[in-house]
Amino acid sequence: MEIVLLCIGKTDRTFWVDPIEEYVKRLKHYTKFSIQCVNDNKVQKKMQPSELKNKEAKSILQKIKPGDFVYLLDEKGKSFSSNGLSKKIEQHMIGASQRIVFIIGGAYGFSEKIYLKFPNKISLSDMTFSHQMVRLFFCEQLYRAFTIINKHPYHNS
Amino acid sequence: MEIVLLCIGKTDRTFWVDPIEEYVKRLKHYTKFSIQCVNDNKVQKKMQPSELKNKEAKSILQKIKPGDFVYLLDEKGKSFSSNGLSKKIEQHMIGASQRIVFIIGGAYGFSEKIYLKFPNKISLSDMTFSHQMVRLFFCEQLYRAFTIINKHPYHNS
Fold first, then answer.
1. Is residue B98 included in any domain, yes or no?
2. What total of structural domains would you count in chain A?
3. Which domain holds residue B86?
4. Closest listed residue to residue A92, CA positions, set A7, A149, A29
5. Contacts of residue A80 in chain B, CB cutoff 8 Å?
6. Which of A10, A89, A157, B30 could connect to B146 by a Cys-Cys bridge, CB 3.0–4.6 Å?
7. Can you give the CATH number for the domain in which B37 is found?
8. Do residue B141 and residue A127 have CB atoms under 8 angstroms apart?
9. Do B18 and A22 touch (CB under 8 A)?
């Protein structure tokens, strides 16, 4: 099984890169994991939100392969405890999907097209985070999920 | 008004220090804010959880001044949206408390004594995080709360 975190735009601030890289490194002990970024169309800042979301949807869809199981990380999604998320991941490990793709939306969220195509949504918190924070948040929870699945102690730092 | 984030143990991993410091720096534009750490008794690792929690409670209580308004950051607490948290902070800004103290518990949570003394609990997510992550998480949300209160754009990076 392979897990992909699909994001809009790169992680360009050093203070975010280091902790995210740390969890990506830790995750490699457990699974094939990568963060993939699609362009965030920064040059076209005057674009309307709906136009931007449609452009982002197009870029997202290009990254999805047939047979992928997709979750949107979205505030309208279902909340999970860390144990709950680990159970979900475990189910996929014995399931048929080759790739599980978690997607973090752009500044204005997802287009309607994306919501219709991918009905599975996970909410990480009732609070709103910066996109960079969501990346770190997710990587830490995914790492935690694998420590739970493998009954390994969690490195609490 | 002064805001304090009270934690058990220091932030000793560089990859956590940088993003946390970034938000502490940003928060200084809005309020008097500091992170205060009490010893995490690392030397006494063989201590029972209850004993450790009692020791931590003692250290926590030494840091609390009369008139402080205290919130425990605790998974059993009430969930807030980012807007909800900003409203809470705004209420305190026009309230009587000189200091608002948010406390992150130790590895085993809080002792019963602390729960009884400080009934106000805030849950950041249904998920469990490392203590370092909770620090960053909280600082980012506090910064976001102040950008909401001041109607400032949020620096989404």
1. yes
2. 1
3. 2-149
4. A149
5. 126-127
6. B30
7. 3.40.1280.10
8. yes
9. no
